[in-house]
Amino acid sequence: MPDIDFRPIQVMIVDKDSNTRRLLRGILSRLGIDKITDLPNTTDVPAALLASPPDLLFIDADAAEPEGLRFVQNLRHAQQPHNPFLCIIAMTWQPTQPLMMRFTASGADDLMVKPFSAKQVQDRLTNLIDGRKGFVVTADYIGPDRRRQPREGLQIPLFNVPNSLRLKVTGLFDKARINDAVADALEAINVQKVVRGGFQLAFLAEFAAPGAGAGGDKMAADHLLRIGPVLDDLMRRLRPDSDLRPTLETYATTIRATLEAFKAAPDKPAGGMPALLAAAIGIAAATSRRSNIAVVEQEVRGAVTSYRNRLAEITQAKAAPAAVATPVPTGATVEKEVQ
């Protein structure tokens, strides 16, 4: 898109470093953008989002939790009072591996390393206008599609979410229409979150069942305990008048009873795992509107097998240097979130 007129764009900058805010404000001003709000932290951001809704948010990724990237994640999950599909560019001085993992999980569109040039800023804006990635939804992620290859399990649809940044510079922005588009996208994503939540429940239960049932397996216990929050989120998102609610409430009661019993005696083998696993598979089948339980079970087991293989590869990779350095290599335990 040649000769972009950036003047209609509204921008918000959130960064504790006043020099960064001043530099970025100057760069944006030279691009013709004068509708700029800048804040030192996220404390006043919710109110500012309502008072002057931006089309683009620059936010400090180096700030301590719950600042920065945690705020972005909450915004994407519609836990803040504004358009969750707002274009977001995170900023950092050091793109370390832990920070990159947090950035990826946050759902921000892009990451810009400080110090940055005027051309870098302009290029990032142009990319969000002309080539913004579609969004994907999983049990714990809403944001740009960063997948390099398909994963086992349910195929995840791609959402073209509202982009007020593009609408502004193309002269197609209409406040009523963008509000309707946001509402429609939220409804579609909410439906998908229920489907993904159902599959995630079954995945966690299938992964945890052997170790939790035998007892003494920390990784299995950790995955088992993740079931509760996923179940709560799924039931919260389920429409009150949904035809699935009676069935899912029955399954949820079984799952919660098993989880409560396990929490009361976490060092002992978890009883009721077969019933919990059956209920979780039932929820996965119901939320995906499929009657063939066997097919759902096969998909879940395939996803778990793939996950275990990835964990084994990581463990072997970590153990390899030790094997070279010492005659008798030590074992390693790896834990990794799945989304």
Structure, described:
- The strands form two sheets. The chain has a five-stranded parallel β-sheet, covered by helices on one side.
- The protein has twelve helices and seven strands.
- The chain folds into two domains: 10-132, Response regulator (Rossmann fold), CATH 3.40.50; 195-325, no CATH class.
- It has helices spanning 18-30, 45-51, 69-76, 97-106, 118-130, 164-169, 175-214, 218-225, 227-237, 245-264, 273-287, 293-325; strands spanning 10-14, 35-39, 56-60, 87-92, 110-113, 135-137, 142-144.
- Helix 3 runs parallel beside helix 4 (97-106), helix 7 (175-214) runs antiparallel to helix 11 and helix 10 packs antiparallel against helix 11.
- It has 339 residues and is α/β, with parallel strands linked by helices.
